[in-house]
């Protein structure tokens, strides 16, 4: 199954603005954020999110993607959840005082999912076992308001060389350096991911975001009532 051709929605948030916005972040966090922005098309992904509503970003890390969402459209109210209490503390410090942004420490697998217009997971699913992935996605679906969206940024398993490169990098980041909490990886390819989302009763499509990157970045857009 082929992904839909990348409609290349224009990027509307500048890298420099993101770093400025995360003014309370420490120098190490800022250095990490700069690298992440260089190797991951988060700014491109932002353009696929609605401009208003209540959002929940599961596995928000140190607040980078919630910050990008907020810069893209100030009417978005975003709750970020992450298992790692240090990252939540860092997000709160970096973005202190920004209205409509809230951060909470907790496990997405044991979270009481509030009703929301958008649920997102950015480079998180692969850290959850396949059973946990299915359970979390089903909970997102149940918590989505009418017209709501589930938006997932992940890595595809193709092309093979990009998948291999990503696997090596993740092994270093998660298992050797310990940048991210996790023990094993559970990557699903595009075909499998789309069929899982559809089996939950969601309409789903994929947008390749890997052009110009050495990683197989892919974005899944899903919704109960269509995904226009
Ligand atoms: C690769 S990082 C991505 C962080 C962020 N989404 C970003 O793109 O900058 C994966 C994040 O998922 C978080 N995570 C892993 N398992 C989780 C779980 N069960 N519940 C909540 N967060 C989790 C990790 O702590 C980590 O911050």
Structural notes for this entry:
The structure is a single chain. This protein is an alpha/beta fold. The protein has a single domain (15-223), classed as Rossmann fold, CATH 3.40.50.150. 37% of the residues lie in helices and 22% in strands. The protein has helices spanning 15-21, 27-39, 42-46, 64-72, 85-94, 130-143, 160-176, 190-199, and strands at 53-58, 76-82, 101-105, 116-122, 144-155, 203-208, 217-223. Strands 3-2-1-4-5-7-6 form a seven-stranded mixed sheet, with helices on both faces. Strand 6 and strand 7 form a beta hairpin. The two termini are 20 Å apart. Residues 36, 58-61, 64-65, 81-84, 87, 107-109, 122-124, 127-128, 180-182 line the site of S-adenosylmethionine.
Order of adjacent strands in the largest pleated sheet: 3-2-1-4-5-7-6
CATH architecture descriptor text: 3-Layer(aba) Sandwich
N- to C-terminal distance: 20 Å
Coarse structural class:
alpha/beta
pLDDT averaged over residues: 93
CATH class, please? Alpha Beta
Shape call: globular
Bound molecules: S-adenosylmethionine
Number of domain modules:
1
Strand residue percentage = 15-25%
Major sheet size, sense and barrel closure: 7 strands, mixed
